[in-house]
Every structure is written in structure tokens, then in C-alpha cells.
Amino acid sequence: MKKIGIKDIALRANVSTAIVSYVMNGTRNVKPETKERVLKVIEEFNYRPNAIAQSLKSRRTNTIGVIAEDITVFNTPEIIDGINDYAEQHDMHILLTNLRLQKKVGYNYADTASYQKHAQNAVSDLVSNQVEGIVYIGVHPRDLTGLIHTNDKPIVYTYCYAQNECSIQYNDEQASYDAIQYLVSKGHSRIAVISGLMDSIPSRLRFNGYYKALTEFQLYFDPQFIKVGDWGGESGYQLLGELMELPDPPTAILVMNDLMAAGALRAAAERGISVPRDLSVVGFDNREFSAYLNPRITTMDLPLHDMGILAMKALCNRISGNEETIEEPPLCKLIERDSVAGPRTSIK
User: pTM score, two decimals?
Assistant: First the structure.
């Protein structure tokens, strides 16, 4: 069977090959009736242009490289889905590389040499495949300045950042503030916090939001209510116990991730403390399991899909030479479930 080409489309539509090219690429205005005729013929023949030939002629590939540090980490799939959403809407192609860093390097974020080797190899592979730019998705919000070099290809970071480069993050501080505001609206004034490691950017920003809310709502800041965990469930379990041993314990707790919140729920149950009747708990991240615990955890949902879309939008701006400022960081959303109620007079 003869392969259909642009000349066949032009002949059937009774137009020049230039007109067919204009319609397909949107490079010039074409009379509506002519455009409709050409598109009808294209659909009739189910014509698909040769992408390689087009890229050689236009010097554009419409292909974006995406480097995920590890697609098994909870934040990454939804960000990738946002990237693909934008790509589909703008007729772009994605080349995805999974570095699998958690399995290869683990959680030793200070081991930059190992990270750099894997990341730089991925960049080189993508550049050799003629990508026009790169979106880099981190497993943890941290500074990656100097980690990789892109040979002048535009790059946008998300869920991590590099100095003097574009990065798309969500608003951690506002999310924490909103969580405290929600607890205050339920009548709580003695609100504790279980944070992640304080050398972590999210922990610091979320603590800032916590402190800002206490100040604005004129609540007493009690240093005993500040507990620092390690993001793991066991630390949530242990620290909930320490908070409940205080002479006048809190009536509500903001826990900076759902894994620690799950540990806190287990500790509360073993102590005979009913959540939310005796103690209210708000988590963070909206991990899938948080909807299946008993009680189901009220938590802050991260705008991961929006981050993927905004990362692509920012990258495309840079590819086209447009340094347009991206709008404010997307906001987290409170997912209200069963772990929050008004305070009781006494927990003891």
C-alpha cells in the first residue's frame, strides 16, 4: 500500500502543499473553509506526519525530558501525571527517566557524588535524544545546586530546587497555617506539633506557618508542645506518648506527615485516648493509607498534579525565550475526615 504523504493530502484537498503545512503547524492563518477541507482529508487518510522529518526541518522536536529521582516515592506519580496532562494538551512528547535513587543511594541526601553520577548520565541520555528541555522531579525538597549540567538546555525543578534556576513548589507555610486555623475554628487553643527533621525545608516552612498562626490567633506558644520526629511512624508513636505525659497535654496536634500521624494514632489507641473525642489529629501529605486508618485522618493534600502542569508551563516558557513569571505556588487543600472534633474539658 502506498504511503500517504503531504502531496497526496494537498492533491485531494485541491490546495498547495504549503497550505497543508500551514494548517498542520498552525504557522499562518488559512481561510476557515479551506482549513476545514484540509483537516477533513487528513482525517480521512488518518495521516500522521513523520515526526523526525518535521523536527529536522523545524529544528524543534516538541519533546521534553523528565527525570524522576524515584517513581516509587509517593509524590512523583501525580506530578508526572500533571506533566503528561500539559503535554497532551500542547501536542508534546515526554521521555521519562527513572533514576531509582532510593534503591541505589537510599536516603543519604548528603551523598551528592552518587546522586550526581546517576543524574548526569540521565541528562546526557536525554540531550542525545534531542529533548528541548528537562523537568527534574526530586524525592525530597532540597537544594540541588550544581548537581547536574544540562548543556544549556532549559531545566525546571519541582519538589526540589537549585539556586538561580526555576523551581515549582507548593506553599508549605500556608498549608500549616491553614491546618492550625482549621483547628482553631473547631475550638482548640492548646495545639501541639510533631515535625519532621528540622534540617528539612518542609519542616522549617511548616513550623513557620504553625508559629504564625499561633501568633495571629493569640494562642500561647508552649515549647513543650514542639516535638521533632524523623518522618517515620515510630517517631510519631513515641512523641505522641511524650505529649500526653505532659501535666496539661494538648487537645489537638498537627503532625507533619501522615506516616507519623499513623504512629500517633496507634499510640493514642494503646493509651485509651479516643481520636477525635479526646484528641484531634491533623496529618500532612494525604497519603493513600490515611483514608483507611481508624479513624480516617484529616490531612493536607499536596497539589502535586498542579505542580507538574506548572513545571511544564514554566519550561515551555523558557524554551520559547519567554521568562514569564509563574503564578504563586499552588496551595494545599484540607481533606476533612474523622480525626478532628472540638476539645473536651479534660483528656486525663
Answer: 0.79
Rounded Cα distance between 8 and 14, Å, is 10
Query: Nearest-CA neighbor of 304 among 64, 73, 143, 52?
Result: 73
| Length of the chain (residues) | 348
Q: Look at residue 52 in the predicted model and tell me its pLDDT.
A: 44
In the numeric block, the cell 490567633 is attached to 217
pLDDT digit string (tens) for 251-274?
Answer: 999 999 999 999 999 999 999 999
Residue 209, CA distances (Å) to 17, 203, 214, 246, 256 in order: 60, 10, 9, 24, 12
pLDDT score for 335: 97
Cis peptide before 276 (omega within 30 of 0): yes
Q: In Å, what is the CA distance from 93 to each residue of 48, 66, 121, 223?
A: 15, 10, 21, 51
Q: Are the C-beta atoms of residues 261 and 283 closer than 8 Å to each other?
A: yes
CA distances from 215 to 57, 177, 285, 330 (A): 61, 11, 24, 24
Phi, psi of 276 (to 5 degrees): -105, 5
